[in-house]
Amino acid sequence: MNASGAIADIEFRHFHFFCGLGGGGKGFNKGTARVGNLRGCWRCIGGVDSDPAAIRDFTRAAGVPGTVIDLFSREQYTAFWGREPPAAWRECTTDDIRRAAHGERPHAVFLSAPCKGFSGLLPEASSITDKYQALNALTLRGVWLMLETWKDDPPELIIFENVPRIMKRGRRLLDQIIALLRSYGYAVRETAHDCGVIGGLGQSRKRFLMVARHEAKVPPFLYEPEKRRLRGVGEILEKLPRPGDPRGGPMHRMPALQWKTWVRLAFVEAGSDWRSLNKLAVEDGVLRDFGILPDVEWQAGVLGVHGWNDTSGVIAGRSTPTNGAFAVADPRQFVDGGSGSDFHGLRVVGYEQSAGAITTQRSPGSSAQSVADPRVDGHEKSVQLGVRRWDQTAACVKGDVSVGTGPYAVSDPRMEGKPRFNNTFRIVPWAGSAPAVAGPGGPAGGLAVADPRPSQRDDYKQTKYRVTGMRESSGAVIGASTTGNGAYAVADPALNWGENAHGSKLAVQEWGEPARTVTSSRILAGGGAVADPRPGYGQNAHQNILAVTDWEDSAKVISGARHVAGGALSVADPRPVDDLRNGAFGVNGFGDTAGTVQGETMPSNGAFAVADPRPVGLNAKRDHYQSGGHYGVVPWGESAYAVPGFAKYDRGHWSVADPYGAAAEPLIELPKPDDRLVAVIRALDNTWHRPFTTLELAALQSLVDPDEIEGFTLDGQSDSAWRERIGNAVPPDAAAAIASVMATTLLLAMTGETFMLSSQPIWVREVAVALSVDDRGNIPHE
Predict the structure, then answer these.
(1) What is the distance, to the nearest Å, from the Cα of residue 321 to the centroid of all Cα atoms in its chain?
(2) What does the alpha-carbon distance between residue 549 and residue 574 come to, in Å, rounded to a whole number?
(3) Cα separation of 744 and 42, whole Å?
(4) Element (H, E) at 169
(5) Cβ 660 vs Cβ 682: under 8 Å
(6) Domains, in order of start, for the chain
(7) Concatenated DSSP letters for 238-275?
(8) Residue 143: beta bridge partners?
(9) Could you read off the pLDDT of 625-652 as tens digits, one per residue?
(10) pTM: predicted TM-score of the whole model, two decimal places
(11) Contacts of 484 (CB under 8 A, 6+ apart)
(12) Euclidean distance between CA atoms 113 and 100, whole angstroms
């Protein structure tokens, strides 16, 4: 303590394993503490990660150069990548870690090992493979490298962060890590915390935390950071410019989604997910109760109806119901003719009533030009389209005999036995006699003749598609001069080579003939090609090239050649192709039995596909899809879920009900379902349901202050890479809160105090015990 009472600044140093883009490093740099006249602060001395892009981000965020180091052992590298490392690769050593820390010793080390192998998003079957077991083992190797690097002067505090599921999937590794830490003199405890509560974020982010303190160096308790309320996403996002605003940079661009995806999001209730769509009534693939129309196309008042006593709007050039309020509620009733109303369209006059005035518009749709005629039987026109029975007499044959003028059809019972209508479509021979020529009601067959006379007419119709010889005169040129209308084609011997074209253009010489004169011309100039019978293989070519082995012969020696031109790798197979793979790309019906399961069960090798009628993603076995929040929309006033590396609109609650909307661009028509665009659809709650931008996810992670976005960027140009690094990052605001309470503990240790009065609870009691007592015999298995 300074004797003069002035504040003395004490600097603590921190180092990061698996540092990522530097969220933890940036947060620790902001941590501060005050004990008496001592004021503690933090400075980052370095970090290591295997991702070069993440290291470049870390360098900007933490203010110190990071180091690209692969922490895998050789065995882990081979197991993870499935191949041996390159020749220049070597295992990381403690000297490499000391160089990454720039020769300094840290007071605290933060480890945030890869969590993919422990995540519940990874299927259990995949998590136990050699690849992910090697990735999980990095946690143990990272702790061991850290302990060995500074074993002569150990760091005072160690913080190990990961996903909560590590306590189950990584239980064996955690037990090994705890045993290792204890062997180096550390007291250890496991707990969990919510980064959102600790850092006052707009997301709830629950994480596993293992904290260790060196017993000889740090006896005081560790106090819990002040808990803060979770903020609504709107409190953070409203400070940012609108998505797509150039001030937000490339990370603030709105993704171009398919039109059908925008429609889905618009119908998802805020706070829910894709299951909201099950509430919609769909008939024949169309929404029954809703429609979507462009705002700019359908102006206010479209399809509007004026009251009878109201004044109309301005008469425009397109005064139609779909352009505005150009319809009227007319109270006048359709009444009988002659009573002062002209609304007689489609009206039928009673048989005893007088007709309305006969006008020039004599049609049922224009006035009362129809009559209710009670005369049915006996009226000569009352049997139009009538059909007589076979045993009845026919009606009187008149001049207008047709089925539309009377009962001139018959119900003919002759349907069985030898056909009686054998004249239909019959062609009469040239020497035969024609059938009797009758009227419309007579025979309907034998009205064509096989005419043996060749066509001799000069009519152009007799020369369709005719080709005129080069020396012949052409037919008369008419207005429809096409090859389909006459002799409008010519047999041209010139081949379009021009008058001076060489007679040997494109000629190919026989192998035994002498070549033409060699000129500088090309093949098109004449005789520049030869029919070469030689296969093109030299004298030293292998005799098995393109060889085909007979079905009964033994095969040649199997060599390293991988194609038919490299040896006798073909066989004359006498088996029919249908017997070999006749089920290639076959699809079994859902109720059919499958074919024999072979060694190569791929669609191209047989019928190894099935027509599955069950909707993908909606069956009971896809539990994660049922509860994963796909297409979920977060209300503006609520906090978001923890931001992962895969945050995308169709992978969880990664859209927001934005009440501010955005300026819409004019649309002539609605897009097609698969068209990609940025759409603004006013949802049922009158908000814009849209995906979070990458910049907004970074703000929810507290990686960027919404009021200070100018100049903020991450390495590269890939949104998916940015989102992965953002999701894997430690929220800086949460890291700052942790760093502050740890600085308090270190200041207490410096002054020799083991207890401090505080309104804050001890953080967390299990952790506090770990920092004050020896509980080596009581390793929790939560």
Answers:
(1) 39
(2) 12
(3) 11
(4) helix 166-169
(5) no
(6) 8-233+729-770 (3.40.50.150), 246-295+625-727 (no CATH)
(7) TTSPPTT-GGG-GGGPPP-EEHHHHHHHHHSPTT--GG
(8) none
(9) 566 677 788 888 887 877 776 777 777 7
(10) 0.57
(11) 464, 465
(12) 17
Listed in order, strand segments (DSSP E) in 440-573 are 448-449, 467-468, 489-490, 508-509, 529-530, 548-549, 570-571
Which of 226-230, 452-456, 615-619 shows the lowest mean pLDDT across its residues?
615-619
**First vs last C-alpha separation in the chain:** 42
| pLDDT tens track for 356-396 | 666 666 566 666 677 777 765 544 455 567 788 888 888 77
State how far the Cα of 424 lies from the Cα of 447, in Å rounded to an integer: 9
**Helices 23-30 and 52-62, interaxial angle, to 10°?**
10
Between β-strands 257-258 and 676-677, what pairing exists: parallel, antiparallel or unpaired?
antiparallel
- Hunting for tokens 């007689």 — which residue is that? 344
Contact 679, 259 (CB under 8 A): yes
CB 57 within 8 A of CB 26: no
Predicted local distance difference test score (pLDDT) of residue 346: 66
Rounded CA Rg of the chain: 45
Q: Which two tokens stand for residue 420?
A: 């009686």
Task: Please name which of 760, 659, 759, 741 lies closest in space to residue 213, comparing C-alpha atoms.
Answer: 741
CA distance 100 to 69: 9
**What residue type is 240 in one-letter code?**
L
For residues 746 and 350, what is the distance between their CA atoms, to the nearest angstrom? Answer: 107
Judge contact between 123 and 624, C-beta under 8 A. Answer: no
Q: Which helix (H) or strand (E) holds 97?
A: helix 94-100
- Res 773: pLDDT: 40
Contact 71, 50 (CB under 8 A): yes
- Maximum pairwise Cα distance, the chain: 141
Burial class (CB in 10 A: 0-12, 13-18, 19+), 236: buried
How many other C-beta atoms can be found within 10 angstroms of the C-beta atom of residue 411? 10
Tokens representing 717 are: 């140009």
Amino acid 633: pLDDT? 82
Q: What integer pLDDT is reported at residue 1 of this predicted model?
A: 47
Rounded to 5°, angle at Cα 544 from 539 and 549: 150
CA distance 74 to 76: 5
Look at the alpha carbons of 131, 133, 138, 141 in this order and tell me if their dihedral is positive or negative.
negative
Tokens for 143?
């702790």
- Residue with token string 């007579």: 442
**C-alpha to C-alpha distances, 353 to 356, 371, 677, nearest whole angstrom:** 9, 9, 65
SS3 (DSSP) at 728: helix
Q: What is the pLDDT of residue 776?
A: 44
